[in-house]
Amino acid sequence: MANQENLPLYDKIWIKRKFQRAIDILILLLLFSLLSFRLFSIINNTFTIPWLLAFSCESWFTFTWIVILNAKWCPAVTKTHPNRLLQHRVQELPRVDLFVTTADHVLEPPIITFNTVLSLLALDYPANKLACYVSDDACSVFTFYGLVEAAKFAKFWVPFCKKYNIQVRAPFRYFSQVTKSEEGSSEFKQEWLQMKDMYDNLSRRVEDVTRNSLSLKFEGEFAVFLNTEKRNHPSIVKVISENKDDLPDGLPHLIYVSREKKPNYEHNYKAGAMNVLTRVSGLMTNAPFMLNVDCDMVVSNPKIIQHAVCILMDSKKGKDVAFVQCFQQFYDGIKDDPFGNQWVAAFEYIIRGMGGLQGPYYGGTNTFHRRNAIYGLDPHENHYGKKGKLSEKASIKQFGSSNEFVKSVTHAFEGSDYSTSNGISPSSFIDSAIQVSDCEYENGTSWGNQMGWLYGSISEDVPTGLNMHRKGWRSECCTPDQTAFTGCAPGGLLTTMVQQKRWASGLTVVFFGKHSPVMGILFGIRAMDSFDSFCDLHYTYITRVSIKRAIIKKETPGSIASGDNADAGRFTFDESPAFMVGTTVLLVQLTALVVKIVGLDLEASSGNGCGLGELMGSVYLVVCYWPFLKGLFARGKYGIPLSTIFKSALLSLIFVHFSRIGVIS
Ligand SMILES: O=c1ccn([C@@H]2O[C@H](COP(=O)(O)OP(=O)(O)O[C@H]3O[C@H](CO)[C@@H](O)[C@H](O)[C@H]3O)[C@@H](O)[C@H]2O)c(=O)[nH]1
Ligand SMILES: [Mn+2]
């Protein structure tokens, strides 16, 4: 019998998809024939600008398709074995620091954030190995208040979840799924009612306080928030709760961090926040691994850390893994989502495909990182130690001027656990934590530049992940049967537009920036999206096939609407001109179909008319615009406003009129 100790903690299984390959090749052939058609057409025609644009865009699409094929064609899944981890290595289970970022208490209400935090505090993992750090870029007293209250509730909620092995540990998700305590022992029913009551109380209190700031007194621990402004305030670091006795079945530490902000100081968005959390946690708990989640993600598989740790701790394959990426999955998404916000195809094909190569890209959330990789080591240095010890001067230059922090980096490099087990608790590091959260701390250091989360783009995840792969690190997907994290996908057109626009502009910066993937195409699949959007825009413009996607990337709406939870699963409309385009396209297609069916097809006899191909094209487009078709007949916010329908009808009439004149003449 094999020695259990030597069994791998995870296996990688390559999967074959022959049918998919056949389809992929077919598409490639079609793309090639389109290109040759263009090339031959130039022989008979004059060279025009639209021809050039069409040809360049189609060449780009062909090129990206080839790159995508490369990524898709050796998909792999990882299979983790947490039981092996637990049977033999309980003593050695590593610490994991948990990071949550929030930046706006209006768009990201405290209730959402503290639910994320509660789902993390309730993870199935020894509580004394976990610490949860929340970065608040809004410096919001409401978020802080919510966390303080949530920590009190956690004392009851976490034991309840563990006792009854509840799987969904974010209370708002749990209570929306289990709305009655009908099943289980009478003891369970009683405790369920208590929990529900406490949770309802908690959310009501936090909501009341958020709505009416007067009821909150700026005393005691809240005093520091008096006179702070979102973009102008000193660093605030507060240990909300502490597992002082180092109990595995206690609660993880909970720490609130709001880094210093000053006008005229670049704060570097989420990347800046992540680097501050990295330093504060380095001082306080210094876990070798760090999990980062956005405040709108919740854990839906309480054993996820065990799975991820299997990958990171595997003695053979795990050594050169810098990060483990869990997929983003969504609750309450739109059924048959017209925007593709749930990324189903992307995960299933592209990301799994990359899993068989150097690994998936870093998605920005739901990711476990290796601290030493974030600190800039490459896999070789991590394994064999850094060549020659860094002099004190060099370390300060690289990591900043906190001696305490530099000391913690040395410990991290040596792989030694030095903090709480020696009886030193997080609260003894408050002063140094405040120091490393200051605006000026990073001046002249390597933070955001060669190491940590990289600056220069609002899509910090792309350059940060690329940089890891460039250094030779691998990454792995972690997809246990039970979904690891769930979040809320944008539901409406507006939220989608804002997100896509931000991604496109962020990615464009990456594409042309310092860490540009142009040098390493294979690493750059995601950043290529930026160029895609550029080509999409021009291409849709020339062909007028689907102006919808072009519009999504053109518009610049003012604010992020995050509150479309109420509309979960439904497509909503308003008076925005953005909807006019889709409605017009739909009406034109419908008119074409009616004309064909009723037999008003004047030009058919001239041999110039519409055949089966065009008919199928129109039907296909109508299917693509299904949500709009439903919108034509629905009323209220789920229906297209009458004024929009009227304007679109006018536009399509004009369009149809001129097309017919064009054809007849
Ligand atoms: O100055 C900032 C801006 C944002 N955030 C936080 O960063 C996260 C992501 O920001 P969000 O505005 O929600 O962006 P999304 O487009 O929803 O996020 C996706 O895209 C981002 C950029 O590519 C990634 O960082 C995210 O992880 C990924 O989920 C949220 O928790 C924010 O609170 C900050 O902490 N500080
Ligand atoms: Mn988000």
Number of domains: 4
CATH topology of the largest domain: Spore Coat Polysaccharide Biosynthesis Protein SpsA, Chain A
Total strands: 13
Largest sheet strand order: 5-6-4-3-7-11-9-12
Shape: globular
Provide tags for this entry:
single chain, 665 residues, alpha/beta, Spore Coat Polysaccharide Biosynthesis Protein SpsA, Chain A, 4 domains, eight-stranded mixed β-sheet, three-stranded mixed β-sheet, 23 helices, globular, binds uridine-5'-diphosphate-glucose, binds manganese (II) ion
Tell me what you see in this structure.
- This protein is of the alpha/beta class and 665 residues long.
- The chain folds into four domains: 18-74; 82-488, Spore Coat Polysaccharide Biosynthesis Protein SpsA, Chain A, CATH 3.90.550; 493-554, no CATH class; 573-664, no CATH class.
- Helix content is 48%, strand content 10%.
- The protein is built from 23 helices and 13 strands.
- It has helices spanning 18-44, 49-72, 82-89, 110-121, 141-163, 171-177, 186-211, 269-284, 304-313, 344-355, 371-374, 379-384, 392-399, 403-414, 430-436, 461-470, 493-512, 529-543, 547-554, 578-598, 612-624, 626-633, 642-664; strands at 10-14, 76-80, 96-102, 130-136, 236-241, 253-258, 289-294, 297-299, 321-325, 329-331, 367-370, 474-477, 485-488.
- An eight-stranded mixed beta sheet has the order 5-6-4-3-7-11-9-12, with helices on both faces.
- The protein is globular.
- Uridine-5'-diphosphate-glucose binds next to strand 3, helix 8 and helix 17.
- Mn(2+) binds at residues 270, 294.
- It is a multi-pass membrane protein.
- It is found in: Endomembrane system.
